Amino acid sequence: MLEDVEAGKVEHPGDLPALVLAYVGDAVYELVVRCHLVESGAVKVDRLHKEAVKYVNAAAQARVLRALDGRLTEEEAAVVRRGRNTKSLHPPRSAGIIEYRHSTALECLIGYLYLKGDIVRLGEIMKTAFEAAGTGKPPGAGRRAPEGNVD
To answer: Which of 4, 15, 26, 118 does the annotation list as catalytic?
Structure first.
């Protein structure tokens, strides 16, 4: 999936401000999640949105960052720290400040990897994201049949 996306190659993405990396990472993360859902068979827009929200929210993204603990290179960990410690101009409305900072850190890492052109590593991070943020299953998998009289 990510092989089809032409990664922007910025010579020194680590020199960019953390919020710029997070800005790009937010867009890349959302796009990859949407493509994953479409490839998984979800085709109704309302369903796509409901499923995407399971992955694209501060709490889910904070879970992803926790799942990456101990799996990051020193370089990646430094980018995550920069993203986590940066102050945003917009305080979170639906998340606690810690979750919000962790989600910003994840977006920062994703933006960094994308701008660096490291699509293979970005794919590994997104695989972890699908496992940690969601169920790790395609939309609708494992859904229970409605209860009641089914004669």
So the answer is: 26
Active site residue 151: no
**Domains parsed from the chain with CATH numbers:** 20-133 (1.10.1520.10)
Q: Which residue has the tokens 């169920």?
A: 135
- Per-residue pLDDT, averaged over 131-142, amounts to 54
Residue 123, helix vs strand vs coil: helix
Mean pLDDT of 88-105: 84
Q: For residue 95, is it left (φ>0), alpha (ψ between -120 and 50) or beta?
A: beta
User: Whole-prediction pTM value?
Assistant: 0.81
Residue-wise burial string across 106-137, b where 16 or more C-beta atoms lie within 10 A, e elsewhere: bbbbbbbbbbbebbebbeebbebbbebbbeee
